[in-house]
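In the design runs reported in the main text, the only information available to the sequence generator was the tokenized backbone. The following block is the verbatim input for one such run; it is reproduced so that readers can re-run the procedure and compare outputs position by position.
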């Protein structure tokens, strides 16, 4: 519980650092660029098959590959709350603490919070996110609302 709380607080502190970059998500005149597959693909994905590829990507030496993998894993976890292994969860926690960039640490922190509290994001299970920026922005907003509710109680 203490780890989750520390990660939760850390996510909001890091949000200030990367909020400017995140708010400038990739867009076109007709809307956001679609990077993620359609929602139905995530709902049908076989996590046992994909796990080795995700772990390989999370350990890859290039930051962009790691960030992309975090986005894909996070999208899959929201679509299938029961998916994902302890190995992936452990690697996300490690990246949240020791990732090479603030963006990796921030996204891994949000993903770790999702793993600890999947019901918090249950409303997003049927939302079709176009790209990682849209997904992580929605997660950040949900956590902001949760903090406001906790502070009011």
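Verbatim output:
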């Amino acid at each position: 519980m203490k780890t989750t709380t520390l990660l939760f607080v850390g996510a909001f502190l890091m949000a200030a650092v990367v909020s400017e970059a995140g708010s400038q998500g990739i867009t076109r005149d007709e809307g956001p660029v679609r990077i993620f597959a359609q929602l139905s693909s995530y709902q049908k994905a076989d996590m046992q098959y994909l796990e080795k590829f995700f772990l390989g990507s999370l350990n890859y030496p290039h930051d962009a590959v790691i960030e992309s993998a975090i986005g894909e894993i996070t999208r899959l976890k929201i679509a299938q709350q029961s998916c994902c292994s302890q190995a992936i969860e452990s690697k996300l926690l490690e990246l949240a603490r020791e990732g090479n960039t603030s963006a990796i640490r921030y996204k891994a922190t949000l993903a770790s919070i999702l793993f600890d509290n999947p019901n918090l994001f249950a409303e997003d299970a049927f939302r079709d996110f176009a790209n990682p920026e849209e997904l992580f922005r929605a997660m950040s907003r949900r956590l902001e609302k949760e903090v406001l509710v906790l502070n009011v109680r």
